[in-house]
Amino acid sequence: MRPPRQLPLMGLLFFSLIPSQLCQICKPLINTMLKANYTKGIQNANVLLTLRLVGIKNQSLEQQLSQQIKEDINSKEMELTSGQLALGILALGACENPDEEFIHGAHLVSKLGDKFQAEIQNMETHDGNPLTNYYQLSLALLALCLFNGSYSITSVTYYFTPENKNYYFGDQFSVATLAKKIQSEGKQGLFGNIFSTGEAMQALFVSSDYYKSKTNCQETLRTVFYNISQNAFSLPIAAAQILPALMGKTYLDVTNTSCSHNPVEETSWGPYVTSVQGIRASSSDRTYWQLLSNGQPLSQ
Ligand SMILES: *[C@@H]1O[C@H](CO)[C@@H](O)[C@H](O)[C@H]1NC(C)=O
Ligand SMILES: *[C@@H]1O[C@H](CO)[C@@H](O)[C@H](O)[C@H]1NC(C)=O
Ligand SMILES: *[C@@H]1O[C@H](CO)[C@@H](O)[C@H](O)[C@H]1NC(C)=O
Ligand SMILES: *[C@@H]1O[C@H](CO)[C@@H](O)[C@H](O)[C@H]1NC(C)=O
Ligand SMILES: *[C@@H]1O[C@H](CO)[C@@H](O)[C@H](O)[C@H]1NC(C)=O
């Protein structure tokens, strides 16, 4: 095995399918996140991540969530799974905020590297099965990429190629097979469940194949909007998972320096979306992400 190396991760901006009136429908989701009672520590990491990623400014809530996440990491670091620690890092490190100190001080990125390595070792000895699941593995790899962690490029190349169909980004879906799943099973436009839909949507938005079928996209959005109106995303974690995709963000934007200049402003009526940054009208724009090694896609 070659020594671990760093892998540059390219994220390009994402193509607009979403009309600006969309954010009318985002409001109940934002309210769900703002009004919930949070007691579950690291399990709410994705709520903090979404608040920061889409630029919902509520300092007291941010502080409360960040405090709970740090306490959990301090008190049960060993028990945390790779995906939990990855989400913790993504949330604490999102959009240039003071919590980055904590990530460095507690050496969280190298600890995540160890957990990722343990997953890979388990895959090597147990017929490709990780300790957790491919979804967590993908989150861990994403966090390692974005926060300059190290990992074995050989293993990643082997296990994360589309041929291996291991690149999961929703509980049951790999990016490689997502498009097909949508055609076959996703007639209702909502794939997986309300928890995985948001992340699956992010994956789709960065996967260029999906745009070949605009109908799929619109169908998915229509169903999501309908489900929102039916209160399907009434749990803060579910709301937090769907919101970035609806607002044109993916987890790849976490370390983007423009991430901290975001469009949501707080007014006396609560948060209000004044503009949707980064979403352009051009339908010729495409977005995708690729894992590149020395400029070459990993699968080659
Ligand atoms: C949160 O907790 C407060 C006080 O314990 C309670 O009044 C309120 O209904 C709770 N809110 C939700 C959304 O559960
Ligand atoms: C900010 O978050 C707190 C919970 O920490 C919530 O009680 C409050 O209503 C939120 N503020 C707004 C303007 O939504
Ligand atoms: C990762 O490394 C690159 C290049 O060395 C640097 O520009 C970037 O700020 C680093 N990112 C983090 C989150 O440390
Ligand atoms: C979402 O809406 C579809 C109809 O378009 C419905 O079949 C499905 O049960 C809804 N899901 C949830 C979780 O409400
Ligand atoms: C960061 O975000 C800005 C605006 O949202 C975009 O123009 C830029 O391409 C992004 N940079 C990266 C590296 O994704």
From TrEMBL:
<dbReference type="InterPro" id="IPR051588">
    <property type="entry name" value="Cobalamin_Transport"/>
</dbReference>
<protein>
    <submittedName>
        <fullName>TCN1</fullName>
    </submittedName>
</protein>
<feature type="signal peptide">
    <location>
        <begin position="1"/>
        <end position="23"/>
    </location>
</feature>
<feature type="binding site">
    <location>
        <position position="241"/>
    </location>
    <ligand>
        <name>cyanocob(III)alamin</name>
    </ligand>
</feature>
<dbReference type="InterPro" id="IPR002157">
    <property type="entry name" value="Cbl-bd_prot"/>
</dbReference>
<dbReference type="Pfam" id="PF14478">
    <property type="entry name" value="DUF4430"/>
</dbReference>
<dbReference type="GO" id="GO:0031419">
    <property type="term" value="F:cobalamin binding"/>
</dbReference>
<dbReference type="GO" id="GO:0006824">
    <property type="term" value="P:cobalt ion transport"/>
</dbReference>
<feature type="binding site">
    <location>
        <position position="193"/>
    </location>
    <ligand>
        <name>cyanocob(III)alamin</name>
    </ligand>
</feature>
<keyword id="KW-0813">Transport</keyword>
<feature type="disulfide bond">
    <location>
        <begin position="26"/>
        <end position="217"/>
    </location>
</feature>
<feature type="domain" description="Transcobalamin-like C-terminal">
    <location>
        <begin position="249"/>
        <end position="299"/>
    </location>
</feature>
<keyword id="KW-0406">Ion transport</keyword>
<keyword id="KW-0170">Cobalt</keyword>
<keyword id="KW-0732">Signal</keyword>
<feature type="binding site">
    <location>
        <begin position="132"/>
        <end position="136"/>
    </location>
    <ligand>
        <name>cyanocob(III)alamin</name>
    </ligand>
</feature>
<dbReference type="GO" id="GO:0005615">
    <property type="term" value="C:extracellular space"/>
</dbReference>
<keyword id="KW-1015">Disulfide bond</keyword>
<dbReference type="InterPro" id="IPR027954">
    <property type="entry name" value="Transcobalamin-like_C"/>
</dbReference>
<keyword id="KW-0964">Secreted</keyword>
<dbReference type="GO" id="GO:0015889">
    <property type="term" value="P:cobalamin transport"/>
</dbReference>
<keyword id="KW-0171">Cobalt transport</keyword>
<dbReference type="Pfam" id="PF01122">
    <property type="entry name" value="Cobalamin_bind"/>
</dbReference>
<comment type="similarity">
    <text>Belongs to the eukaryotic cobalamin transport proteins family.</text>
</comment>
